[in-house]
Write a structure and sequence with these properties.
This protein has about 500 residues and is an alpha/beta fold. It has two domains: about 230 residues, P-loop containing nucleotide triphosphate hydrolases (Rossmann fold, 3-Layer(aba) Sandwich); about 230 residues, 3-Layer(aba) Sandwich (Rossmann fold), CATH 3.40.50. The chain contains 17 helices and 24 strands. Helix 13 crosses helix 14.
């Protein structure tokens, strides 16, 4: 069926912003169809309308020729439309089955039939070839296993349309392969899959077609076996842009005196980690999932405890037991977990930017809102925030713009060391290039930067020097002239290269 789902002249307007502008295209039954575009292009807004999160301002969605207008998420699920989110919401202390059937537990007269609940869950898990049980504790599962539960929930309601929003962002390579296998099985069963991802290799590997949105407008629908990466990226951004990270400024490393020295640092998942960081340098940290990179950064920042070792800032030993200690010393951490550890969902841009530098906006014991507003406008301009509105709720921004708010927060402090943990995770190609440029501008000012990244192209393109971690230890160091994918990957799996 050429037109299983039809979007007809969809418009969605929020106060001061038109998120979707006359979007029309169709999706075939049983295909894997990507919705792609830069952050803020309107992808999530379109899917939110389809899933009943909020209505379109105007326009119509038809499924199999029939109007599909949903008042809420439950209406969409009843119609057979389900969503697998990037970050799975669950209750860790409950079992898999309890999480699966939360709010709709089988039973009679208020008594839950646990035997049936476990049996139904086991049947769904078997269908997905899962290697865990209905009675397992949810908090003990990996990110990939939790994804399987989200898919199982969609199958439990007999969904005919399932959307995936950045599903591989937190998965290991093995879990990604499992997910892709399940997606192919769903497709073969006639289920239509909508797929949002910023990873070009995934889109070309998994999708039959892709629809490109840009600035809220429909650009084109592309057959993936008849196009190239360059053509897709050109359609997404409307301008020529490199697919990979690339430095536009020379290394700004200044002098031979390190600004940060870490000596024999040990903690829960790492041991004997030592390195120096210089002013104006971008130092890359690479490693496989579980190598301990994030844990090292959190220990330096005081977010996690360390069991031994020393940290020196400008030659003076520091003891950061809490993040606030690190902030006072001039160390900033941009966490990979943007939603839970980055932004305050109930704060606007102005308040999110001020979180780490509140003392600057105090007049005695009173907060000077005018100073906060002025700072937000100034830093918003510097980072290219869209919309640059201090009163705009940060939670309503695209991923790339939310990341810019977090950068603006730390730019509002006097940090001399910036730690970026997966700075472009879940961010589109265009926004990535903007984040890279901001990092370079910080380095140009003499700020020392640590960048933790799982993307080889990013770590090689942006770093002045790379440290590779394996099983909690630094296994290799490479200078710029030594960078190669083979050498870096060898350090992740072998004792010696």
């Amino acid at each position: 069926m050429d037109k299983f789902i039809e979007f007809e002249h969809i418009v969605k307007t929020f106060p001061g912003q038109k998120a979707l502008d006359d979007v029309s295209f169709s999706i075939r039954k049983g295909e894997i169809h990507a919705i792609i575009g830069e952050n803020g292009a309107g992808k999530s807004t379109l899917l939110n309308i389809l899933h009943g999160v909020f209505p379109a301002t105007s326009g119509e969605i038809r499924i199999e020729g029939k109007p599909a207008k949903f008042s809420n998420i439950a209406d969409a699920i009843d119609f057979g439309i389900a969503k697998v989110h990037q970050e799975i919401v669950s209750i860790p202390d409950m079992t898999v089955a309890e999480n699966m059937f939360m709010g709709k537990e089988p039973g009679r007269f208020g008594i839950i039939d646990k035997q049936k609940m476990n049996a139904d869950t086991a049947e769904l898990l078997k269908r997905l070839n899962c290697d865990f049980r209905p009675t397992d504790r949810m908090g003990d599962l990996s990110a990939g296993q939790k994804q399987m539960i989200a898919i199982a929930k969609a199958l439990e309601v007999n969904a005919q349309v399932i959307s995936f929003d950045e599903p591989t962002a937190s998965l290991s390579d093995k879990e990604v392969e499992t997910l892709f296998g399940i997606m192919h099985e769903l497709k073969n069963a006639g289920i239509t899959i909508l797929y949002i991802s910023h990873k070009m290799n995934e889109i070309f590997r998994m999708c039959d077609r892709s629809t490109v949105l840009r600035d809220g407008k429909f650009i084109r629908t592309i057959e993936m076996d008849k196009t190239t990466r360059d053509e897709v990226v050109q359609a997404m951004v409307g301008r020529d842009i490199s697919l990979f990270a690339k430095r536009t400024m020379p290394c700004q490393k200044r002098g031979s005196t390190p600004v940060l020295q870490v000596k024999n640092l040990s903690g829960g998942m790492f041991k004997n980690v030592s390195f120096d960081l210089y002013p104006g340098e971008i130092l890359g940290f690479f490693g496989l999932v579980g190598a301990g990179r994030t844990e090292v950064m959190r220990a330096i920042f005081g977010a996690d405890p360390r069991t031994s070792g020393q940290v020196f800032l400008n030659g003076k030993e520091i003891h950061c037991k809490l993040p606030n200690d690190a902030i006072k010393q001039g160390i900033a951490l941009i966490s990979e977990n943007r939603k839970e550890e980055g932004i305050m969902p109930n704060f606007n841009n102005m308040d999110n930017m001020a979180l780490a530098s509140m003392e600057k906006y105090m007049s005695g014991f009173v907060i000077n809102s005018a100073k906060k507003n002025a700072n937000a406008k100034d830093k918003g301009t510097q980072v290219g925030l869209k919309p640059n509105d201090p009163e705009f709720m940060t939670v309503s921004l695209s991923g790339g713009n939310a990341q810019k708010v977090i950068l603006a927060r730390w730019m509002s402090t006097d940090a001399s060391v910036m730690i970026f943990d997966e700075p472009t995770k879940g961010i589109d190609i265009g926004a990535k290039s903007e984040i890279y440029l901001l990092m370079e501008k910080m380095a140009e000012k003499g700020i020392a930067i640590i960048m933790v990244s799982s993307e080889l192209t990013e770590i090689m393109g942006m770093s002045d020097r790379i440290l590779v971690m394996r099983e909690g230890e630094i296994s290799g160091e490479l200078m710029k002239e030594e960078f190669s994918e083979e050498r870096i990957l060898n350090y992740t799996v072998e004792e010696d290269v």
